[in-house]
Write a structure and sequence with these properties.
Strand content of chain B: 15-25%
Shape of chain B: elongated
Order of helices and strands of chain B: EEHEEEHHEHEEHEEEEHEEHEHE
Mean pLDDT of chain B: 94
CATH topology of one domain in chain B: Ubiquitin-like (UB roll)
Oligomer: heterodimer
Largest sheet of chain B: 5 strands, mixed
Largest sheet of chain A: 5 strands, mixed
Structural class of chain B: alpha+beta
Radius of gyration of chain B: 27 Å
Distance between the termini of chain A: 75 Å
Number of helices of chain A: 25
Distance between the termini of chain B: 44 Å
Number of helices of chain B: 8
Helix content of chain A: 40-55%
Shape of chain A: globular
Number of strands of chain A: 17
Largest interface: A-B, 32 and 38 residues
Bound molecules: flavin mononucleotide, iron/sulfur cluster, FE2/S2 (inorganic) cluster
Chain lengths: 603, 352
């Protein structure tokens, strides 16, 4: 029998994933249930339901934590119509609805992680400054304003070993010291929240889940370099993040954590939001600055570096969201603590968006130096459906792939670079035997090609020509010598391009050739796609002896490519077929197979 | 930064003098060392887009664009190596792979910077086939033809129009392979038609409509002169073919105008050979203009000025002068009106 609860705290995931899965409705259902059953009235402030940001395992949303008298239980896949049962049986009845509990994967997903920058993400209400204050929020800025000179802050960050999380891994303290020393009547801090890598959502989740940590981090950076104004450059496609950030900035101003003479320490700091239109190249520092200034997002040559001549020609530090959101934790717990995490040259943790063919996809934070294997097989739970792992791509369109034999590679800046990949900003795509590496390279190059700003020749025309060669290869029109041409041109594009976009765009091509040359050769020489992905290189056929003349495929084919009927052998007209694979799925007798065209050509 | 401090750098093992504000390219050019360029223009801000000017610098892992990289004391630069030559050749090859290579009928054949580089790097074959830009030629104006199928996106026209002409009529539009120079909303050109963009275009993308097919630069006799439109005194270079002026260019390093002109200087030369051009004074006799000598004309004017002054007073006479004349001419004109004719009624199209 249950004793009536004395405190109830419910947190509902309302990150972008949570909201998409129905988080708002779940939240509303809890609110009305708690009110309807009189729990609100009875327990007053000891009965709360609040929204939280992303907790990483978005595939299981809506995730809900129910804490009754200090006992926490996590539910997954919660929908609004499940709420009344949870309230009745768990909260009132004391008997949790165990069959709706988050499964063992949830545990496995989290156990291998070390949370620093995400430590409060997904547990506090991002729209409530008091929730951040309750977890020691804004104590770091107060500490440095009362106790430290700007140079001391820079020294602490240097000592912590923090390196930029935006991709290149430049030491943050060192970057700050350049801007601190540069002459200028005004200086600026810019937070780079452009996050243009396809599939990446690390920065978005931080802004949505704990915007105050970013604000505090920017204030710390501002104090250190002598800036009184910060800009957050964030893509307009992130409306929830923009809204929560704007709300948090307003709250911080009201509580005087932003504004004039903060904490009576004679330090002014404020933050403006600049929404970008969503161009990958605008993540590049100088293009980003041009965009804030109202110009076209085109990179310019460096030097001068932004730390000397940045926004409006003034010394400017540009840091990534994750870099900045780490700062309050480093100041609070000390640089030695931070430096104790991670590997020799890469300190702390890194957030990744783990996607692709692993069982558990989502947002993860791991200590630097962890082996890729541990991420993929530990946190990620291995490959879906028991298939064979093939490669993992880090660094998105600027990165490279890492094959099975190198899965022991440590996740740090140097080790990843050594195997031809990069740390990047946190994209991690796992591929299995069903992924075609040539197609993967084509996909990424297609992306960078479209996103090239068009300023410099090697990137504007070079990536286009590389893409065209890849398009030929996946279409079965590759020629001997194409791979050599790709490598040759790729090297020139990397060496001659003006900005990081062009300088890294060939990486996915070069690294797939390095590790999967045989797949290229299969496409070019045998006109065969070993993974069965490239549509031009296979066709579907009905295996006569197996077909039971049921005509199911005839009816299901969305484009009417299959001739036949009851009692009439099905026949696929290759010209019409769009290779969607539906017929293979629906045929109850496995009578349809995928055949490489080079085989059919010989028959 | 101390402006203009002089120090030494090394280019290809040769000691070269450089100044604080120099780029590598500027120091090299002054020392007579050749580095190819396409987007660079001495009068315009550094751009760094074409990348043919890449060089290597001791201690910097990447190649750098010499046109945008400032010199530092003791810098060791190499302007040529196998890798550098290969990259330059690839860049020119990439440009040509998206270029309508029609030098035979191209206005700038023989004075085309792209053609020169293709020749310098011996680009007989192009390894890349693929999409080529296909733009309609834009010439809905009397003076300038814009053929962006030949454009190499060096951005010189954009910088010229913005930084020197102060008009900003054109800019980059779209991105990646589809980037294109355009006016607002990619419409027709409606600007001052000064032609300075035409002057700096390194290829045949921007050309003068009135000069086309009237002889190439190397076929013309080029004569340096001063523009006779106004008192600015711009230096022009007239191209004459078969005793007819077919084109006006101007020399970047010469004259008060340093190569810039206005629409009249650049495009307004057709009156010179025009059949209706006024060559002698005309006097109206019996309602018709008839040719006269200068003496006849001047006598007639003097006679009438004297008569009118006597009959009606000299204040009934006024004089208008023109900005086409020099300051000295204008000064003399008002002096003449005031002291000889005896009137203060003088004015000028730009006001005295
Ligand atoms: C094409 C391109 C896109 C980039 N996109 C981003 C981005 O979306 N977010 C980011 O933080 N950095 C991005 N960067 C890196 C930034 O230019 C810059 O190095 C970084 O924001 C510096 O911050 P950090 O030192 O904290 O890493 C990009 C760079 C390039 C060349
Ligand atoms: S490398 Fe690409 S994105 Fe960067 S400046 Fe050149 S064209 Fe633009
Ligand atoms: S693959 Fe799709 S389009 Fe082709 S025959 Fe089967 S069902 Fe029709
Ligand atoms: S612009 Fe130059 S390279 Fe192009 S067609 Fe004309 S002369 Fe030839
Ligand atoms: S003609 Fe003169 S004003 Fe017109 S676009 Fe060219 S430079 Fe600009
Ligand atoms: S039109 Fe001429 S000057 Fe303008 S970008 Fe193209 S090539 Fe350069
Ligand atoms: S949005 Fe809910 S876990 Fe990511
Ligand atoms: S001339 Fe230097 S990049 Fe074009």
């Amino acid at each position: 029998m249950s004793s009536s609860p004395k405190s109830i705290s419910i947190s509902v995931c309302m990150g972008t994933g949570g909201i998409a899965a129905g988080g708002a409705e779940v939240m509303e259902a809890f609110e009305s249930e708690l009110a309807r059953r009189g729990l609100r009235a009875k327990l007053q402030e000891n009965c709360t339901a609040h929204k939280v940001g992303c907790r990483g395992f978005c595939a299981r949303d809506v995730l809900v934590d129910v804490v009754v008298d200090g006992q926490r239980a996590t539910y997954e896949y919660v929908q609004a119509d499940m709420v009344s049962r949870i309230v009745e049986e768990h909260i009132i009845g004391g008997a949790p609805v165990e069959k709706w509990f988050a499964g063992p994967e949830y545990e496995a997903f989290h156990v291998g992680q070390t949370k620093v920058v995400l430590s409060d993400c997904g547990s506090i209400n991002p729209e409530d400054i008091d929730a951040y204050l309750a977890v020691d929020g804004y104590t770091a800025i107060q500490k440095i304003l009362c106790e430290m000179w700007p140079e001391e802050v820079i020294t602490e960050i240097k000592d912590s070993g923090l390196r930029g999380r935006g991709g290149a891994g430049f030491p943050t303290g060192l970057k700050w010291s350049f801007a601190a020393m540069a002459k200028g009547d005004e200086k600026y801090i810019i937070c780079n929240a452009d996050e243009g890598d396809p599939g990446a959502f690390m920065d978005r989740s931080i802004v949505e889940g704990n915007p105050h940590a970013l604000i505090e981090g920017m204030s710390i950076a501002g104090y250190a370099i002598g800036a009184n104004l910060g800009y957050v450059y964030i893509r307009a496609e992130y409306p929830l993040a923009v809204q929560r950030l704007a709300h948090a900035i307003e709250q911080a101003r009201q509580r005087e954590f932003l504004g004039k003479n903060i904490r009576n320490a004679d330090f002014d700091f404020d933050i403006r939001i600049k929404q970008g239109a969503g161009a990958f190249v605008c993540g590049e520092e100088t293009a980003l600055i041009a965009s804030i200034e109202g110009g076209r997002g085109m990179p310019r040559p460096k030097p001068p570096f932004p730390t000397h001549r940045g926004l409006w020609g003034k010394p400017t530090v540009i840091n990534n969201v994750e870099t900045l959101a780490n700062l309050p934790y480093i100041i609070r717990k000390g640089p030695q603590w931070f430096a104790s995490l991670g590997s020799e040259k890469s300190k702390g943790t890194k957030v990744f968006a783990l996607t692709g063919k692993v069982r558990n996809t989502g947002l993860i934070e791991v200590p630097m130096g962890i082996a890729l294997k541990e991420i993929i097989y530990g946190i990620g739970g291995g490959i879906e459906g028991g298939r064979q792992f093939k490669a993992v791509q880090t660094g998105g369109p600027s990165g490279g792939c890492i094959p099975t034999e190198l899965l022991d590679t440590a996740v740090d800046y140097e080790s990843l670079a050594q195997v031809g990949a990069i740390m990047g900003s946190g994209g991690m795509v796992v591929m299995d035997e069903d992924n075609c590496m040539v197609e993967m390279a084509r996909y990424f190059l297609h992306f960078t090609q479209e996103e090239s700003c068009g300023k410099c020749v090697p990137c504007r025309v070079g990536t286009k020509r590389m893409l065209e060669i890849l398009e030929r290869i996946v279409a079965g029109r590759g020629e001997l010598g194409d791979v050599e041409l790709l490598l040759d041109l790729g090297e020139d594009v990397k060496a001659a391009s003006l900005c990081g976009l062009g300088q890294t765009a060939p990486n996915p091509v070069i690294s797939t050739i390095r590790y999967f040359r045989e797949e290229y050769d299969a496409h070019i020489v045998q006109k065969r796609c070993p993974a069965g992905v490239c549509k031009a290189l296979f066709e579907y056929q009905v295996v006569e002896p197996l077909c039971k003349l049921c005509s199911l495929c005839v009816r299901k084919c969305p484009v009417g490519a299959i001739e036949g009927g009851k009692k009439k052998l099905a026949k696929i007209k290759d010209r019409k077929c769009v290779k969607c694979g539906i017929c293979i799925e629906v045929c109850p007798f496995d009578a349809i197979t995928q055949v490489d065209i080079h085989e059919t050509a010989e028959v | 930064m101390e402006a203009g401090r002089v120090f030494k750098i090394t280019i290809n093992d040769q000691a070269v003098e450089a100044r604080t504000a120099d780029t590598i390219l500027e120091a090299a050019r002054r020392a007579g060392i050749h580095i190819p360029t396409l987007c660079y223009h001495r009068q315009l801000s550094p751009y760094g887009g074409c990348r043919v000017c890449v060089v290597s610098v001791e201690g910097i892992p990447r190649l750098v664009a010499s046109c945008t990289t400032p010199v530092t004391e003791g810098m060791q630069v190499r302007t040529d190596s196998e890798q550098i030559r290969k990259i330059r050749k690839t860049i020119v090859e990439l440009i040509l792979s998206n270029h309508c290579n029609e030098c035979m009928v191209c206005e700038v054949n023989g004075r085309c910077e792209l053609q020169d580089l293709a020749y310098e790097y011996g680009l007989k074959t192009i390894r890349f086939q693929g999409e080529r830009s296909q733009y309609e030629i834009e010439d809905q104006n009397p003076l300038i033809e814009r053929d962006y199928n030949k454009c190499i996106l060096c951005g010189r026209c954009v910088r010229m129009c913005d930084e020197i002409q102060g008009v900003g009529a054109v800019d980059f539009s779209k991105r990646g392979f589809h980037a294109k120079i355009a006016t607002e909303y990619d419409g027709i050109l409606s600007c001052e038609f000064c032609g300075n963009c035409v002057a700096v275009c390194p290829v045949g993308a921007l050309t003068s409509k009135i000069s086309r097919y009237r002889g190439r630069a190397y076929e013309a006799r080029q004569v340096k002169t001063i523009c006779n439109y106004c008192g600015c005194g711009c230096t022009l270079n007239l191209h004459a073919r078969e005793n007819e002026i077919v084109r006006v260019t101007s020399l970047e390093d010469d004259g008060v105008n340093e190569g810039h002109t206005c629409v009249k200087g650049k495009f307004g030369f057709q009156y010179i050979n025009h059949p209706e051009r006024l060559k002698t004074p005309l006097i109206k006799r019996n309602g018709e203009f008839v040719e006269a000598t200068w003496d006849e004309a001047l006598d007639l004017m003097a006679e009438n000025f004297t008569r009118i002054g006597k009959e009606y007073g000299s204040n009934t006479i006024g004089g208008l002068c023109s900005a086409k004349c020099t300051n000295e001419d204008n000064y003399l004109f008002q002096k003449f009106m005031r002291t000889v004719i005896g009137t203060n009624n003088v004015d000028h199209c730009a006001r005295y």
